[in-house]
Every structure is written in structure tokens, then in C-alpha cells.
TrEMBL record:
Gene3D superfamilies: 1.20.58.60. Pfam families: Spectrin. This is Utrophin. It comes from the Eukaryota. Residues 3-64, 208-242 form a coiled coil. InterPro entries: Spectrin/alpha-actinin (IPR018159), Spectrin_repeat (IPR002017). Transmembrane segments: none annotated.
Amino acid sequence: EKAVNLKKDLAEMQEWMTQAEEEYLEKDFEYKSPEELENAVEEMKRAKEDVLQKEVRVKILKDNIKMLATKVPSSGQDLATELNVVLENYQLLCNRIRGKCHTLEEVWSCWIELLQYLDLETGWLNNLEERVQMTENLPDKLDAVNDALEALESVLRHPADNRTQIRELGQTLIDGGILDDIISEKLEAFNARYEELSHLAVSRQIALEQQLQTMRETDHMLQVLQENLAELDRQLTSYLTDRVDAFQMPQEAQ
């Protein structure tokens, strides 16, 4: 009777493993939304816990069969053969579920990381857009134009590392068929805005540089003119003070 019960336990254990394999490993999953992906991750975590909890039951079966084998070698030997098959299948099931759980957790981590990089770069784009808007309607003063140009150039010196991460993470998920529609839409919107703002910012940078150069040249010309006028004024003043006749002055003074 002991052998019959153990044989029944082994059969039940094998049946449970077959059902677990069908439920967690063989059915196809489609992750078209973050909610579906998150639910799949949580389901695989529960599956891993469920499978690992059966380890206690497997150990009890193993101990009971060994004990029976010492008392009834013939029955114990047959059960030991079945036990080895169950143990092998159980270990394989554990490894496969652990592997799938790890993969899904990595995919979820990849998705969260992508969102974080997109959030960072969107913040930078918002800052860039604000700086570009601040270059409009500037007062016609050299300091104001120079400050606006320096502020814009400071934002444009943003490293490209985050955008590289966004491209690689997005492509990895899309290649795996994970959230491909959502990610493609997000990347398309981000890239379009990035290209538009980058071109606009560079155009404004070039325009400000040209404006600044013109203002500096004009400022230099005015400074030279003021110096010449000051020198002429000093000469005229000395002529008037000395009561010099106009016809005795140099031509330019006349």
C-alpha cells in the first residue's frame, strides 16, 4: 500500500509539472501594452515561487522512496526509476521557468529604462525650446545678444549618450516584438521633435553669431569715429583758444 501511494504521488507530481509547463512555458504571449508586459512579469514571478515551493514535496517523495527501497528493495527499485524521471523533469521545469522569469524581468527593466531616458531627453528638449524662444525679440544690445547666444550654446552642448541609449533600448524591444507599436510611436514623435528643435536651434545660433559679429563691427566703427571726433574737437578747441585764423588751419579743420 505504501508503494501504491508513492506511485500515485509521483504520477500526480508529473501531471502537475505537465500542466505548469503548458500554462507558463508553452502558451504564446503578446506584449502589446505595458500592462500586458507587467502582468506577464508578475505571473512568471508567481509561477517561479509556485514551482520552487514544490521542492519540499519532491524532497519528501525522494526520502520516502529511499526508505521504502531499504525495506522492500523490489518495489523501491521500480519507484526509484520513476523518481529519477520526475526529478529530472522537475529540475528542467525549474530552470526553464527561472530563465523565462529572468528574461521577462530584463525586458521590463529595459522598458522602464527607456521611459527614463525619454523623460530626461524630453526635459532637455523643453529646455532647448525655451532657450530658442528667448532668442526672439531681443533688445538691440550687444550684451543681450551675447548672453542669449551663450545660453543657447550651453544647452546645445548636451551629450548624445542618452539618445544612443534610447535608440538601442527601443530597437532591442522592437526586435523582440515587445511593445513595438507603442515604442515606434514614442520614438517617432521624439525623433521628429528632436530634429525640428535641433535645426531651429542651430539656425538661431548661426543668426545670433552673425548678428553679434555685425554689432561688434558696428561698435568698433563707432568707437573709432568717436575717437576721431574727440581728436578733431580737441584740435578745433586749441585753434579757437589761440584765435588762429581759419585760413591758417589745415584743410580738414577748415
